[in-house]
Amino acid sequence: MSALVPHFSYWVTLFLMIAGLQVLIARGNLMKKLIGLAVLQSSVYLLYIAPGKLLGGTAPIVAPGFAVYSNPLPHVLILTAIVVGVATLALGLAITVRIREAYGSIEEDEILELDRADGR
Amino acid sequence: MLEHLPALQVVLPLVAAPLIVLARSTRFAWLATTVVSYACLVCAVLLASRVADAGTISYALGSWPPPWGIEYRVDALSAFVLVAVSLTASFVAPYAQRSIAAEVDADRQYLMYAMYCLCLAGLLGMAITGDAFNLFVFLEISSLASYVLIALGRRRQALFAAYQYMLLGTVGATFYVIGVGLLYLVTGTLNLADMAERLRAVEDLRPVLAALAFITVGMGLKLALFPLHQWLPNAYAYAPSMATAFLAATATKVSVYVLLRYYFTVFDPAALFERLPTRGIFLALSVAAMIVASLAAVYEKDAKRLFAWSSVAQVGYITLGIGLANHASLTGSITHLLNHGVTKGAIFLLLGGVALRSGALSVSVASLAGLGRRMPLTAFGLVVAGLSLIGVPGTAGFITKWFLIAGALERGAWWVVAAIVLSSLIAVIYVWRLVELAYLRPPQDGAVRREAPAGMLAAGLAMAGLCVYFGLFTSVNVEGARAAAALLLRGGP
Questions:
Q1: How far apart are CA B74 and CA B51, in angstroms?
Q2: In whole angstroms, what is the distance from residue B103 CA to residue B109 CA?
Q3: How far is Cα B30 from Cα B34, in angstroms, rounded to an integer?
Q4: Taking 90 as the threshold, does the pLDDT of residue B301 lie above it?
Q5: Which chain A residue shows the shortest CA-CA distance from B136?
Q6: I need a surface site. Which of A40, A79, B448, B488 has the fewest CB within 10 A?
Q7: Structural domain span for residue A98
Q8: Residue A74 C-alpha, separation from nearest chain B C-alpha, in angstroms
């Protein structure tokens, strides 16, 4: 336990990262794959944000009476990364909708089967 | 005006995209795209000549000085990549008009141009920025745009190819950003030059090693390093012709650039190649790509997918040079970014013309029969570019192989030389299949005997001409690559 507690946020990050990748690889449903992708991206948000926070630190606005400030840069970076993640997810969902219209299925093996039937 | 060139280089295509979407006119979209592509080429050439005269240019975006603000940094390597990308763009843009009109629904055509501009902006941004996180943002801009470009293909397979590329590409970009995050935790900076400086003082190597691994795998996915190339053949085969030509010539190359930038200017190349098994891994994977992917090309029935497989093999040549890591081999790798760009660009542009005239949804290798009689100029261009793929003396591909073999001999790696020769022989097989079909077989019944539209044909032939030009007059591609390789090996930017 003593090894786990100080690095608690890293363990959570690592768990989310691996869980996301696992879902992405092991699931054949295109929606579930996208969910895995979103979880993987969320783990990165945590990887950046957690070290930016100092215990007892306050918002980085210079004011009398405060000496310890949190680092605002990781938060700003992740704001950008969240926007990128949203855009990726939106595009992924849009393509999934189009795949459903074109193939009538969002299961990877059924789509590959239909492609094979097309004779490439 | 001139001192703002680095910003203009990226801002022009970035601003063109929303303007195109607002105007909703296909004609305006094409005009804007063409003007912007040529403007980018002018910017890139001006920047490259200034870098050659006066050395590295540093541009503080928004006047925030580095390392606090985002720095745009143009040195010999990034200038070379900027020229290579915008040169391709200047051929693809005029070509796009007829090609897009034939392959994309009328109400979506302007969106295709907008995506192309965004993709161009992202690729140029990746090459010019000196900031690790900014690079990630540009990587995602170019990637998201290229997923859409691929998904706009006419067959339904294009959708699934785009989906698979999107999954793998996003995992690649996420891995890259994890690597950057680890480096940021260790060094506290995102400016690449500053990061290199501070990494030297870092004692705890484990997070740095993890970052190296994440960045290598992440960019390996984006540049289709064997065996991370699964997304590539389908993506290239089903995308619209102009998208295939543009992406094949530029997207993987810029990812190679990012890898070079990290390996040789951020990390310590001496430690990377001497104390870690990097060299062995790179050599093994590159040789595997050169042989396995070339063999896959030999057995492929679809013409576009055949050359997509050949792209995987050609990326193998580029990474081979990185693995050897001496001046000659890096010169070979860097010059191949341009040489392979013009070669594959020419091939996919010309195949687009064939697809247009045949009217079929895909171009099978068998349907190329009699091409020498039906479309003599197109067939001639394809053969010239095919010779450059093989690496026949007098073509751009030969220059690359010359430097790679020189680099391998310098390391005493005879088996690498043998692999290069073997892979070239396999390339002879798949290119000869094309030559035989085009010139020695009669055309299929009912095949159209008509050249591609003049604009498309001219762009394709001009790029094929560049294959020969860069093979005979090496002042642009080899001198630029030499300067860039010298810069990388000096250690530190």
A1: 7
A2: 9
A3: 6
A4: no
A5: A81
A6: A79
A7: 5-47+72-117
A8: 9
Which pLDDT score, from 0 to 100, does residue A3 have?
61
Q: How far is B486 from chain A (nearest CA, A)?
A: 33
- Asked if residue B492 has pLDDT above 60, the reply is no
In a domain, A66, yes or no: no
Query: pLDDT per residue over B302-353, tens digit each?
Result: 888 999 999 999 999 999 999 888 889 999 999 999 999 999 999 999 998 8
Average pLDDT over every residue of B54-65? 86
What residues form DSSP beta bridges with B332?
none
The helix/strand count (H/E) of chain A reads as 4, 0
Euclidean distance between the first and the last CA atom of chain A, given in angstroms as a whole number: 55
Whole-structure pTM value: 0.93
Please give the interface size between A and B, counted as residue pairs whose CB atoms are below 8 Å apart: 69
B177 interaction partners in chain A (CB closer than 8 Å): 44, 81
Judge contact between B395 and B386, C-beta under 8 A. no
Tell me the shortest Cα–Cα distance from A95 to chain B, in angstroms: 7
Asked if residue A29 is part of any domain, the answer here is yes
Q: Find residue A69's DSSP bridge partners.
A: A58
User: Do residue A118 and residue B157 have CB atoms under 8 angstroms apart?
Assistant: yes
CA atoms of B311 and B248, how far apart (whole Å)? 7
Whole-angstrom Cα distance, residue A88 to residue A86? 5
Buried b (16+ CB within 10 A) or exposed e, B239-275: bbbbbbbbbbbbbbbbbbbbbbbbbbbbbbbeebbee
Burial status of residue B409 (CB atoms within 10 A of its CB: 0-12, 13-18, 19 or more): middle
- Residue B259, pLDDT score: 93
Alpha-carbon distance A109 to A107, whole Å?
6
**B456 in A contact zone (CB under 8 Å):** no
Which tokens belong to B290? Answer: 């050169």
Nearest CA in chain B to A105: B160
Domains held by chain A: number: 1
Please report, as a single letter, which amino acid is at residue B407: G
Task: Give the C-alpha distances (Å, rounded to integers) separating A84 from A76, B131, B166, B262, B480.
Answer: 13, 17, 13, 23, 34
For residue A79, give the CATH number of its domain. Answer: 1.10.287.3510
Is a pLDDT exceeding 50 seen at residue B107?
yes
Residue B338, burial from CB neighbour count under 10 angstroms (0-12, 13-18, 19+)? buried
Rounded to a whole number, what is the distance in Å from the CA of B262 to chain A's nearest CA?
20
Chain A neighbors of B181, CB-CB under 8 A: 44, 47-48
Residue A9 forms part of a structural domain? yes
CA distance B113 to B236: 18
- Asked whether the predicted pLDDT for residue B146 surpasses 90, the reply is yes
| Closest listed residue to residue B304, CA positions, set B217, B365, B358, B392 | B365
**Cβ of B144 under 8 Å from any chain A Cβ?**
yes
